[in-house]
Write a sequence for this structure.
C-alpha cells in the first residue's frame, strides 16, 4: 500500500468530527471543495468508502468507523508530541554528547555537570574521554572540548574556565634526595614520571620564562596513560611529575607535594567548548552553553576584589 499522507488523514478525522465538509473546511482554513477532494483521494487510495454523503449530512461507513477508532488516539499522540516540542521553543531536552580530553573532564567539566543536570532534568549528558583530536560531527558529538591551539577556525568556541597552568611537583623525600631544580634542563638525569597518550605519543615537557621556551624529553622509571597512576607515584616519591596544577593544588597546600620551577610555568587560557558554526544548535547544547556562561560570571563576581 502506498504511504498515506498525514494531511489527508487529518482532513478525514476533521470531517468525521464535524459531520460536515463545510464545517471541516472552516476548521482547517481551506475551501470545502479542497476538503471533499482530499477525502475522495483518501478513499481512492484505500479502495473503500469512508463517508456516506447526502445533501444534508455526512456519516461514517463501517470502514470509516474502524479507521476513525484507530486514527484518533494516534493523531492525539502526534499532537501531544508536537505540543511538547513547540510549547517552548528550544526547550532543553534529549541527549547532549561531548567529547573532551581527560584533564578537561576531570578539572573543568566534572565540577559543573551535576549542577547542570539538576537545572535541566530532561537532558541526558554523555561525556566521552578522547585525547586525540577528532571530527565531532562525523562521530556524532554535539560539542567538543579542546585548548585554544587545537581549535579549528570554523567553530564557535566558548571558554569553560579561567586561566590554567602546569606544575612540576615531587614528594618532599624526593626533593631532599635529588635537590630542587631551578632550570627545566636539570630534570634531565633526574627521575621523572611521564604521560603517554593512548595514541602512543609521549609529549615533550614544555616550559617558558621571559619569552624563552625550553622543550625537554627526560627519562624516568614510569610512563603511563593513567593520571591516577602518575599522581600516586609522585606522592610516593617515584619521580618529578609535570601536570595540570588542578590535580595537585590540594597536595601542595597540604605539604604532600612540593612545587618546583614555578617561574617556568606561566598560565595559559583554559579549555574551550566548541561546536560547528554552520549547524543548528540543539536545545540541550544551547542550555549548556548558557549554563557555562552563567557559572563563569558567578565565579568572576566571587573572585572580584571587594570595594
Amino acid at each position: 500500500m502506498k504511504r498515506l499522507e498525514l494531511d489527508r488523514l487529518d482532513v478525514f478525522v476533521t470531517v468525521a468530527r464535524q459531520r460536515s465538509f463545510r464545517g471541516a473546511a472552516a476548521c482547517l482554513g481551506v475551501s470545502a471543495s479542497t476538503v471533499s477532494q482530499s477525502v475522495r483521494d483518501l478513499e481512492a487510495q484505500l479502495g473503500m468508502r469512508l463517508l456516506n454523503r447526502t445533501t444534508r449530512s455526512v456519516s461514517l461507513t463501517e470502514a470509516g468507523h474502524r479507521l476513525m477508532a484507530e486514527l484518533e488516539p494516534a493523531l492525539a499522540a502526534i499532537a501531544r508530541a508536537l505540543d511538547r516540542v513547540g510549547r517552548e521553543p528550544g526547550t532543553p531536552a534529549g541527549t547532549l554528547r561531548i567529547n573532551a580530553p581527560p584533564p578537561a573532564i576531570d578539572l573543568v567539566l566534572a565540577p559543573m555537570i551535576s549542577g547542570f543536570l539538576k537545572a535541566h532534568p530532561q537532558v541526558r549528558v554523555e561525556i566521552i574521554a578522547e585525547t586525540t583530536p577528532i571530527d565531532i560531527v562525523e562521530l556524532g558529538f554535539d560539542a567538543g572540548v579542546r585548548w585554544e591551539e587545537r581549535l579549528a577556525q570554523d567553530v564557535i568556541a566558548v571558554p569553560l574556565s579561567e586561566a590554567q597552568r602546569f606544575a612540576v611537583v615531587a614528594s618532599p623525600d624526593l626533593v631532599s634526595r635529588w635537590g630542587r631544580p631551578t632550570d627545566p634542563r636539570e630534570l634531565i638525569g633526574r627521575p621523572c614520571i611521564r604521560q603517554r597518550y593512548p595514541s602512543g605519543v609521549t609529549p615533550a615537557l614544555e616550559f617558558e620564562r621571559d619569552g624563552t621556551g625550553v622543550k625537554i624529553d627526560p627519562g624516568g622509571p614510569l610512563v603511563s596513560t593513567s593520571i591516577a597512576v602518575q599522581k600516586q607515584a609522585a606522592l610516593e616519591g617515584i619521580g618529578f611529575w609535570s601536570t595540570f596544577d588542578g590535580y595537585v593544588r590540594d597536595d601542595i597546600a597540604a605539604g604532600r607535594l612540593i612545587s618546583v620551577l614555578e617561574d617556568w610555568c606561566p598560565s595559559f587560557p583554559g579549555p574551550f567548548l566548541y561546536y560547528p558554526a554552520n549547524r543548528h544548535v540543539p536545545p540541550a547544547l544551547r542550555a549548556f552553553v548558557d549554563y557555562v556562561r552563567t557559572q563563569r560570571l558567578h565565579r568572576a563576581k566571587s573572585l572580584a576584589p571587594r570595594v
Remarks:
- The two ends are 76 Å apart (CA to CA).
- The chain is about 40% helix and 20% strand.
- The mean pLDDT is 87.
